[in-house]
Every structure is written in C-alpha cells, then in structure tokens.
Amino acid sequence: MLNQETIDIIKSTVPVLEQHGTDITKAFYKRMFKMHPELKNVFNQTNQKKNRQQEALANVVYHAAKHIDELHTLAGVVEGIAHKHRSIGIRPDQYPIVGENLLAAIKEVLGEAATDEIINAWAEAYGELAKIFIGEENALREGIKERGGWDDYKPFIVARKVPESEVITSFYLKPQDGRPLPTYSPGQYLSVRVQPTEQANTQIRQYSLSDAYSPEYYRISVKREAGREGLPDGIVSTYLHHEIQEGDCVWVSAPAGEFTLNLESKKPIVLISGGVGLTPLTSMAKTWKQQGAIQNLTWIHAAINGSVHALKEEMRTLDKENDTFKCYTVYERPTEEDRENKAFDKEGYIDLLWLKQVLDTKEAEFYFCGPEPFMKAIYNCLLKWGVQESSIHFEFFGPSMALEEEVTA
Asked: For residue 272, which of 369, 338, 157, 339 has the smallest C-alpha distance?
C-alpha cells in the first residue's frame, strides 16, 4: 500500500502528465527499444510508427496518477491490458525493464522538474501497479491452463484458407499436436506470431475469433490492410493473405480478451459492426445460436458495399433459421449489383433516427466494433438515446482510445 505522502506527490504530477504524457511515453519506448532491441519482437512496431501505443500508454499513466488512491476504479483498464500482455507473451521479469526505462524517460522529459522526491514516489507507485498487473496476468495464465490451454505460443497448421470478400480472408487453424482446443468466450481474440519475409523481427498481431467454438479448429478472418497515412500495407495481414498457404504453420497464443458476449443477461442483444469489426460479433451471433440462447438478437452491419461485406451468407443463414434473430445491412456506397439484388436496408450511415426505427427498445445490451470513426459515431448515438453506460460494450482493434472523453466533449 502506498502511504499518503507518496499518493500526494503522484497526484501533484497529474497536470504535468496531462501536458507531457505523450512526450514521456515516446521517450520511454525509444529508450527501451534501444536498450532492449529484443522487445521489438513483442511490441507492434506499426502502432509505434503511428504513435498509437505511445498515446495509449500516456492515457494509462495519466489515469493511474489521477486515481492512485483508488486503483480499484481502473479494474476494467487493468483487465484489458492484462489480457493483451498475457496474449502477446509479456513476462513478470520484463516489468523491471519497463519501470527502469519509464523513470528514465520522466527524468529526460521533465529535466530538473523531476526531483528525486517525484522519481522515488513514481518508482514506488510503479512497483504497486506492476504487482497488480503481474497478479492479473498470472491468474489469466492459470485460468487458461485449467481449461486445457497453453502458455506462450504453440504451432497451428492452416487447414483452410477461404476468401470471404475482396479484402477479408478466413483462416481455419488446427493445432499441430492434434489436441482438442480449449473453449473461449465469443468476442475474444488470438495473438498470431509470424516472421514475414524481409522483416528483421517477428511480428505479433491480434485477430478476433470469428466462429462459434469448435474443439477441432479456431477461425480468424483477416482484413488485408492497405497502406495509408504515409505507411506501407499492413505487414502481417499482407503476409497472411499473400504468402501463408494451406498447410503452412503459424504460432498462436491461447484466446484472450474481455470484450465478450454475456448470455446471462436477459436483455435483448444488439450487435453493431463496421467493416472487419464484424469478426468478433460473428462469433457472438453464432455462439448465441449454438447455445440456444433465449434473448432476441439484432445484428446491424455497415460496409462500403457488398464487395467488401464478408461472411454475409452466415449472417443471412442465421436470419433465415431463427425467428428471434433480425439482421440489417447498411452500405455507404452500394454498387448497382447491390441495388439490383436489394442487398441492403439503408444507404449511407447508421444514425440515431434510423436506429430508433429498427430497434424495439434501448433497454438492450449493445456490442459494437469497427473503425475508430464508426466507433465514435455509434457510441455517441447510444449516449444521446440514453442507453445505460453499463449496457454499452465495445472493443478497439489496436491500442484503446478515449472514446468517452472525445465524443462527449
């Protein structure tokens, strides 16, 4: 437990972290990768180039300082990060490395303002935070083992590779050892580790499981990421699409993630997806069917048009076979073929007025996932409608962003 003096010192640094937090985390990652280049095999270097990881860490450090006297309020944040750490293979013995470089980065950025008193207080606070994360991650490892899972990574064979749209392909992964796979919660993801051609470091990416549970295989559905914002095409997604073939081996960690479908709630379920954000929601919808759940389920999917709408036949099959399932499709720019086939329910974007027309009630459990602008728009719609915060569930692909603060400002 931290004493009151340490808590007061940490809280006094909140305004500084608000102003210089991202500068500190940029210096931290630069320093850590220089001192420990082997960690480039663990951390997503694309997120580093986009500064997304630096911003996400700065946000965590800021909120940890702000709530240092009530760390229990960060439970949700801790859970999400712990799942990611366990999934990519962060180990307890790496926490001192992080602490050493974080404190050095604070000194580097703040200069003389980073007094010995402040550095010592942050060293103590970091030690407490590290204990919390290590404890949570160890508990997750034990839970995986109890369900017949594995620690670290194990080899999987690509049993099938199925194109789902112009940009999304599904990979059916079977364990090389042939053992039955542990169960997972719908909405969870896998970490996939590969060594793409001409890459100096191994690359790890998270991909949502996109099917209901089977003891024989896991399925992920991967979007081939086109380069934008001055960045090249997605390293791993391009490698999986173009180079990995049926029969090849990839290394996979056990399922992880806290964005999961709660079938214990009696409320109706509403799934809202944008683009490749449909992957975890496909797992949710198919699990709902597999388990014979009693809640009504409505699935709304938004895509540019039918050519990039993946897994739509699975969605339509659920619609045909279940009286308590409804699906709606929104195309931003439908093709002539989409129009001829009457393949969509709305042109343009999902908005609150239309949501109120197609949904019977706002008293439901809402799950949504998709690109960042889509996420902000849906979140804002739900808040304006008066949906309870406790009934709003979402996941970002990549480091978490502050949805709540940005859309309600």
From this structure: 369
Alpha carbon distances (Å) from 201 to 53, 64, 156, 238:
18, 31, 20, 16
**Backbone φ and ψ of 401, nearest 5°:** -110, 165
Q: Which of 29, 55, 62, 95 is catalytic?
A: 95
Higher-pLDDT residue of 396, 256: 256
The share of the chain scoring above pLDDT 70, in percent, equals: 95
- 277: annotated binding-site residue? yes
Could you count the other beta carbons within 10 Å of the beta carbon of residue 167? 19
Q: Which fold has domain 4-146?
A: Globin-like (1.10.490)
Q: Is 137 a catalytic residue?
A: yes
Q: Which CATH architecture does the domain made up of 269-407 adopt?
A: 3-Layer(aba) Sandwich (3.40)
The residue type at 240:
L
Q: Is 126 annotated as a binding residue?
A: no
pLDDT score for 231: 56
Q: What is the pLDDT of residues 158-217, one digit of tens each?
A: 999 999 999 999 999 999 999 999 999 999 999 999 999 888 899 999 999 999 999 999
